[in-house]
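Researcher: Let's do a round of design. I'm pasting the structure tokens now; please hold your answer until I've finished.
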């Protein structure tokens, strides 16, 4: 008498498990994955000025040698930034792997943390060096405009958006926090 109920319970359990696995499979197949073309556009963005760089150059009214110097300076910065960010991603992956391993090596974790701090400092230093070198190229009026652009990009990054002017919990009437524009 107990056996038919046991068989029914087992069949229900298998059915539920199959349903859960099917749901997970469908959800996974629908998750957005960057295609190869998108990845190539991202990589190309680090090597070419691109539309955003052109808008900045036009906004600053750069021409001739100043324009070329500006683009070259930012090209070097973008290449350094991309290289450092890739190294940071590899370092973070290795750190997560070490933390999640069966027997985490505390010494290795400390080395990876120190490398992470060094990489972040390298990225910050590259940014500051880029801003200072760029300011040497620009006139005082262009410098003010450039620092304004950096401030808007910073605000956009803090909001975590790419266009919503009212994102990040700050109303349009709230003043920008004090401090440098970057």
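Researcher: That's everything. Go ahead.
Model: Designed sequence:
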């Amino acid at each position: 008498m107990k056996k038919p109920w046991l068989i029914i319970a087992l069949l229900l359990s298998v059915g539920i498990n199959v349903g859960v696995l099917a749901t997970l499979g469908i959800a996974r197949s629908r998750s957005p994955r960057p295609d190869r073309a998108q990845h190539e556009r991202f990589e190309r963005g680090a090597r070419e000025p691109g539309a955003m760089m052109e808008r900045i150059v036009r906004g600053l009214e750069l021409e001739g040698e100043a324009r070329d110097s500006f683009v070259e300076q930012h090209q070097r910065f973008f290449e350094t930034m991309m290289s450092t960010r890739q190294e940071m991603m590899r370092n973070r992956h290795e750190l997560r792997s070490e933390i999640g391993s069966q027997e985490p090596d505390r010494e290795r974790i400390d080395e990876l943390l120190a490398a992470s701090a060094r990489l972040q400092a390298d990225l910050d230093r590259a940014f500051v060096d880029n801003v200072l070198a760029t300011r040497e190229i620009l006139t005082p009026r262009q410098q003010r405009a450039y620092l304004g652009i950096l401030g808007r990009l910073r605000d956009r990054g803090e909001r975590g958006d790419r266009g919503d002017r009212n994102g990040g919990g700050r109303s349009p009437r709230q003043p920008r926090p004090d401090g440098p524009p970057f």
